[in-house]
Amino acid sequence: MKHIGRRLGPTALVISLASSLGCQHSRSLAQPTPFSLPSPDAARSPALTGQQAAEVWVAIGRSLEQQGQRGRAMDAYRQALAYDDNRADVYARLAIRHDLQGEFQQSAELYRKALERSPDDSRVYSDLGYSLYLQGRWSDAERILRRALELRPDDLRARNNLGLVLASDDRIDEAVAEFRRGGCTPSDAYANVAFVLIVNGQWEEAREHYELALRIDPTSQPARTGLRKLNALIAKATEAGPLSVAQAASQPSQNATSTPGLSGLSSYSVNPAPLDRLGWRTR
Could you tell me if 16 and 61 lie in one domain? Predict the structure, then answer.
C-alpha cells in the first residue's frame, strides 16, 4: 500500500472534500429538521407546561442551526433542557455541535446522557459512531455502529458511517458492501472509498478508486468532483514540497462546497479514553 503523504486526521480534509462523498445518506451526522423560528416569548408563556416550553426551545434551536447561528442554537437547546431534562434528542444535538468543533470530551458526556435517556435510539448510536470515527477510534466506532444497525437495520446513515469506518481500516470490500446497503450506487460506493483513502494519505489508491467509479459511471459527479480535488491537492503538495503536504490538504479549494453538517469541522488532536471507561451501553 503506497502512501504519498502522511496520514491525516479526518477533519483536515473533510471541509474541502466532503462534497465528493457519493450518496445522500453519507452525511454522517444527523441534520436538524427545518423549522420556522418561533418567538422566545412563546417558550416563556406561563400557559405552557415544561415539556411544551422545551419543544418551543427545540424548534428555536433547529431554526437557528438552519440559519448558521450555531452558538445561539446551542443556547436554545440548553434552555430546552432546563425545561425538560429527559430530551435525549436535545442532548444528541448538543453532542453533534461539539463534534463539529472537535470538542470530543464534551460530546462524549452528552452522548452518554442521551443514551441514558434513550438507550435504544439507533440515531444516537449512529452519531456517536461517527464521532468515534472522527477520533480515529475505528474499532470502537464499528462496535457502536453495529449496535445502531442491530436496533434499526434499515438505518441508511449508520450503514454509510460503518462504510467509512471499514474503509479507514482497509477493509475495502466490506466497506463497499455497506455503502451499497446504505443506498449508494456502485460508482458512489467507490467514490466514498476514495474519500477515505485521501483522508488516510493513500492518494494513489484514492485516484484508482475514483477512476474505477468513473469507469462504472462516467457521469458520476461525486467521482469527477473528488478526482478534480485530489489532483489539485497533489499538485499543490508537489509544488510546495513534502513539508507542505499537510498544509495543502487542510486548505479547501476556492470552488469547494461542503456537505451540510460538516462545514464547522477543524483539525484536532485527541488523547481518547478507552470506550469501556466512558460507560457506553453497547448491548
Answer: no
- Domain housing 37: 29-119
- CB 253 within 8 Å of CB 16: yes
For range 6-11, the mean pLDDT: 48
Distance, in Å, from the CA atom of 138 to the CA atom of 154, rounded to the nearest integer, reads 22
Location of C-alpha cell 466514498: 192
How far apart are alpha carbons 173 and 176 in whole angstroms?
A: 5
- Model-wide pTM > 0.70: yes
Domain presence at residue 275: no
- Mention every residue, 6+ apart, whose C-beta is less than 8 A from residue 55: 80
Q: Tell me: pLDDT of 176 over 80.
A: yes
Distance CA 179, CA 258 (A): 20
Distance of alpha carbon 58 from alpha carbon 34, whole angstroms: 11
Residue 210 lies in a domain: yes
Residue 266 · residue 99 · CB < 8 Å: no
Q: In whole angstroms, what is the distance from residue 133 CA to residue 142 CA?
A: 8
Looking at residue 26, its pLDDT comes to 44
Number of domains within the chain = 2
- The secondary structure of residue 283, as a DSSP letter, is -
For the record, the C-alpha cell of 235 comes out as: 499538485
For the stretch 239-281, pLDDT in tens is 876 545 445 444 433 333 333 222 222 222 233 333 333 333 3
Which residues, including other chains, have CB under 8 Å from residue 87's CB and lie 6 or more apart? 54, 58, 80, 81, 117
| Three cell numbers written together for 31 | 441534520
* Inter-CA distances, 28 with 59, 63, 210, 224, 241, Å: 22, 20, 20, 21, 33
Give the pLDDT of residue 63: 92
The closest of 195, 192, 171, 172 to 183, measured between CA atoms, is 192
DSSP 272: P
Neighbours of 149 (CB within 10 A): 20
